[in-house]
Write a structure and sequence with these properties.
This protein has 143 residues and is an alpha/beta fold. Helices cover 29% and strands 17% of the residues. The protein has a five-stranded mixed β-sheet. α4 links the parallel β3 and β4. The longest helix has 15 residues.
Length: 143
């Protein structure tokens, strides 16, 4: 199955941008993640909560995965897609691989800690690789 249609990709990124603008005001690195079903239905959404929870693993992607898994009562997120404001780090990229997410779309490269295409590229070496790690080039997020 190919990457989600461009209209779904655009919808995903618009949801991330619109809902995630307040994250930085909470003292967090402004990252928001949303998970959609292939039919475009929103399944889960989360912000970084590292500072709030005093937990270095409380990244938006991990929290969003947890919500989605609870809602689906499954250990996998096949045929689901995640959109993130910033390229997932290596830990989050591997978590996305472990839950078998279908695709990853992000709004800005993380040249220092990116784990999908910028640095570690861990999903290239995982047992399950999301079908796409794409930057929405038409309107990149400025962080």
């Amino acid at each position: 199955m190919p990457t989600p249609a461009i209209n779904l990709t655009t919808t995903m990124m618009q949801a991330v941008i619109a809902a995630g603008q307040h994250v930085g005001r909470k003292g967090e690195i402004p990252v928001r993640a949303v998970i959609f079903k292939s039919d475009g239905i929103l399944l889960a959404t989360a912000d970084n909560e590292v500072e709030i929870r005093k937990n270095a693993t409380a990244h938006a992607e991990v929290l969003c995965i947890t919500q989605a898994l609870q809602k689906t009562c499954s250990k996998y997120l096949d045929d689901r897609h995640i959109a993130v404001t910033l390229e997932p780090c290596a830990t989050c990229a591997m978590a996305l691989s472990h839950v078998r997410i279908s695709s990853v779309v992000f709004g800005a490269y993380d040249l220092k800690s990116g784990g999908t295409v910028s640095n570690a590229r861990v999903i290239q070496h995982a047992h399950h690789s999301p079908r796409s790690s794409a930057l929405l080039r038409s309107r990149p997020v400025v962080i």
